[in-house]
Structure formats: C-alpha cells, structure tokens
Fold this sequence. Notes:
heterodimer, A: alpha/beta, Rossmann fold, 10 helices, B: 0% strand
Amino acid sequence: MLLEIESLVAGYGDAVVIEDVGFHLDEGEGLAVLGRNGVGKTTLILALMGHARVTAGAIRWRGEEIRSRDASGRAALGIGWVPQERDIFASLTVEENLLVARRPGQFGLVEAYAMFPRLRERRRNHGDNLSGGEQQMLAIARALMTNPRLLALDEPFEGLAPVIVEELEHSIRRLRQEFGFGIIIVEQHAEDALRLSDRAIVLDRGRIVRAGAADDLLADFEAVRSLISV
Amino acid sequence: MSALNPASHGGLSKPALPFSPVTPLIFAALIASYFLFPNHLALATQILVLMIFALSYDLLQGHAGIVSLGHAVFLGLGAYGSAILARWGFTDPLLGLAAGASISALVALVLSPIVVRGSDFTRLLVTLGVASLIHEAANRMRDLTGGADGLADFEVAPLLGLFAFDFEGRTAFLYALTVFALVYAALWRVTTSPFGLALRGIRENSRRMPAIGSPVARHLAVSYLLSGAIAGVGGALLAQTSRFASLDMLGFERSAEIVMVVTLGGTGHIAGVSIGAAAFGLVKDALSTVSPRYWQLGLGVVLMASVFLARGGIGGLIERFGRFGRRA
Lengths: 230, 328
C-alpha cells in the first residue's frame, strides 16, 4: 500500500477542520476528493504535506508513519503537491522553475517539455509572464520534476478555460498511464475529477460522507451532486 | 516504460551565457585602471576588497533573502584572523586568506542556526546583536586585537614567495584583482547551480520550497557559511594589503554600508553589485576629497537619487539595457 490515512484529525491551531478521515491508496491509484467549499478538502492535502496541524490519527507512507517528517522529508519520500495557488516562482524562468525542483528519476526536463510542449516554447519566460493555464502546467510539471509516486493536485482546473482544462486532463491521464503516478485530486469540477480517478471520497463538515469507486459515483452523480452543491 | 523519447524532442534549451555580457567590461576596466592610474592603486585595491565584501553580502541578501546588519563581523574576523596569524609568524598571504575564510566560516556555522530561522526583523535584530557582542569582545581582547588601536605590527611575506608587497601597491592590486576574479567566478557558478536556484526559490517563497523537497534551513545555513567565508577572504585581503586590522572593520557602519552598496548595485545581480561597489568606493573617495567634513551628506544624496532613478540598482539598469538591446 502506498498511502494510508487513518482516523485523521487535522486543522489549524486549536480549530479542527477534518475529523476521523481515513482512506488508502495503492501504487498508481487515483483518488478524487469532493465536497463543497470549506469542508476540509484543502486541509486534507495540507495535512498530508505537513502544512496543517495533525492532532490525531496516522499518515503512513508504504507502511511508515510520516507525521514526524517535515514537508521536505515528505516530498523526498515521493509525495508531490500542486497547490491551489500554484506558487510559481515569478523571478525564475520556466526552465529554472523546473530545474529548481529536479530530483533523480524518470521524469526530467525532456519529459516535462514533452508532456507540456507549451512550456518548452515559454522556457525563457519568467514565471509571472505566463497565462493561468501555462502557470498550472508549470506547477504540475514542477511537482513532477521531484519524481513523486503520488501527486496531490489541489483545484488544478480552477479559473481555467474549458479548452485548457481538457488539455490538462489529457496530460494527467497520460501521466498516470505512462509514469504510473498515483494522484489525489481535489476539484470543484466533480465529474472531471471522477473521470480522472479510480475511487472517490466526498467530504462534508470535515468528515467522509460517501466513498466508493469513481465509476459508481459517476453513475449515481445526482446523489453526489446533492452532497457537493451549495 | 515511458513512451516519451527524449531524442524525439530535440535538445534542451541552450544554457544561459556563462557570464553577464557586462563581465568582460568590468574586468577590462579593472585591468585598465592598473595602467591608467598607477598612483591610485591603493584606492583601487580597497575598492576590490569592497567588491568582494559586497558580493559576499549579495549571496546572503540578494540570493538567499537573508537580511543582516552584522555582516561586517565576518570581514573583521577575516582581517583579525589574518593579522594575528601574521603576528605569530605565519606571514604567507595565502595562508592568511585561508585563515580569514576559515575563521569567518566557523563563526558563521555557529551562528547559522539562530540566523536562518525567523523573519527579516528578527534576523536584523539577531545579526545586529551578535555584531555588537563580537565588536565589544574584540575591543576587550586588547592583547590579541590591539583594542581600539588596532593591529599594525605584522608583516606579510611575498606572494608565492616571489612577489613582495611594494610601496606603490602593484602586487597588492594584482593580488586583490586575482582574488576578486576567483570570488566572482565561484559566486557565478554557485548562484547558477541548482543550489543557487534553490536559494532564489527560498527567497521568493520559503513555504513552497519544502514541498518540492528542498531543505530550506540547510540551504540557508550553507549560504550563510559561504557568505561569511567570502567576507572573511575580503577581510584578510584588506588586512594584508593595508597592513592594518581594526575594530571599524567589524563595526556597524561597515555592515550598514554594505547593505547600501548592494542596494545601489542591485541585489541578486553579481555584475551590478560589483559595479555598484566600485561606484560607491569611487564616489565616497571623491566626495571625501572634496569635502572631508560633509562627504556623507553627498553620499546620502547619491544613494537616494539612485533609488529613484535606477530601480533595481545598477543591475536593474543592465537588465533593462540588455532587453532594449535584444529588441533593437
């Protein structure tokens, strides 16, 4: 088993945002995390990455408890993260943004440019001289340069034009097929997230209220919609 | 296996130029000054030391984003280290340089855990506090440092056993120029390496870097140590070429001055900072010649004008000219 989260309680300071959350992921598996705004989806990712306070429960990576590891230690284990804010380094060029994250492994600069040819065209542009879609591609490619085994994507399609979303979906599918990365995808566009995943959990007020195979949730999407609509 | 064949996508983008296009001009000007101003080599040597000191601080602030009001500590320790070693009979200049670098690096290593953590404000206070402590300690250790009188009773052996330090300052200048060239090249290499990129990433978003596996505290500590060592080299060079080491070399004014110099040059721009340090040294010398009493007023005006007229300092100007040239 690649990742196992068990009875997780996490939040910020004294505030508890997610409670008793648990799931597991096998190597190369995809999980969609769905829910309304403010139910704790991003907090779950932040807890996984070591940026939110975990007060109870366990986070195991290949059987090892990793709560005591800091964020860089978790990244070194193979957990990649594409944050909602993208956090592109504005003063670095596209290529430097990629190289700064490079770690040994199968995914390098050549693969990044092959996956996102637009980044190759923009490789000398600075990070603040890119469109929203290009920034998102760069954020994903940069996370991949760390050669993770699991990629946590937080709202990767937010604010992007439908044609860019399609392009990114295609890239994420290719990544999973060709490199065998596992993914956790937090996304408001629930159908898109489900189509990219094998399984899904739906959060409400910090707890899992539904879990199952992504296909099953797609087949029963009206019920899912009632859980995630405002 | 990946379906992506690297060969089918051609080569990667060409690496950036090994040096800024301005770099040859800097070295051409320095070499020319040797022939054009043979009576001002002492000033030119002091300016070279200032350039080395500025580059050391720029690694810290311009690349790693660590602000400090105590960086002169490392310059002073390098100067005292070299001078004290020479007093004890170890007069070889290269040994003195190594000693200056080592002492400063060692102190930087000890200080790094408290300096690299915290915000800019706490770093300013911590570096200022540490600098005050070391300044006072040096003042009290009169037997070792000469106290307020400084150290002047030491000799420096001929460079490589061949080139004696002459009265005109030719050997001192060429020695300082060589050390500057080595520091310049080394810093260029460091700042364009993956480590240098990581430092720039940390400066921009220190929260993001751990998530891509970058050990932020360790990178900052290494940059602090390197920066301290280079400042120590500058200090040793200063003591050897001026045959003097004094408390003002590790004082607050030097620390504040180097912040101004790097700002004038353009933080994070090695060529710009080098030119900025040279310009600062020349303007300071010219103003103090014109008005020994009020030269600091003039310097203040020049610095304020540079902030308003040259955003990003001299390095910013170089970048803008470069972009303009590429468009033309």
